[in-house]
Design a protein that fits this description.
Layout: H1 17-31, H2 47-50, H3 54-65, E1 72-73, H4 74-80, H5 87-96, E2 108-109, H6 122-139
Parallel strand pairs: 1-2
Helix pairs in contact: 3-5, 4-5
GO cellular component, one term: nucleoplasm
Cofactor: Zn(2+)
Keywords: DNA damage, DNA repair, DNA-binding, Metal-binding, Methyltransferase, Nucleus, Phosphoprotein, Transferase, Zinc
């Protein structure tokens, strides 16, 4: 809704810098998506994103290569991450994603074009995909 205001909870002045970056990024994602490309990606300190693993490779590849308003299949993402036979492992990586939306696991769909699973539920995944599609069309 264009007239809806994006607001941050009270106490924003007490937030740490990484949390402020995260809030700014999420506000931009929902309210002004074109700004997300100019904002720094919040610092991620989750252990899953620190150790060397295929899951880490998949999540960073997704973040880096699948842009706002795009979708990729599990198989395509496996290929981008360096193992074209690991589509099922990509599904596991999506389930392990500690920061959905910022690392956009909702953009990963099945090869048939169906949306597939999502930790936030299929309605949320469909909404996020629709949000991105509509916002991308507005920018075009």
């Amino acid at each position: 809704e264009p007239s809806a205001a994006c607001e941050v909870c009270e106490g924003a002045e007490e937030m740490t810098e990484p949390l402020k970056q995260c809030v700014a990024w999420l506000q931009a994602y929902f309210c002004e998506p074109a700004r997300t490309t100019s904002l720094p990606i919040p610092a991620f300190h989750h252990p899953l994103l620190q150790r060397d693993s295929f899951t880490r490779q998949v999540l960073w590849t997704l973040l880096r290569d699948v842009k706002f308003g795009e979708a990729v299949s599990y198989k395509q993402l496996a290929n981008l991450a360096g193992n074209d036979r690991a589509a099922r492992a990509v599904g596991g990586a999506m389930r392990s994603n500690p920061i959905p939306i910022i690392i956009p696991c909702h953009r990963v769909i099945s090869s048939s074009g169906k949306s597939g699973n999502y930790g936030g539920g299929s309605l949320m995944k469909e909404w996020l995909l629709s949000h991105e599609k509509l916002q991308k069309e507005k920018l075009s």
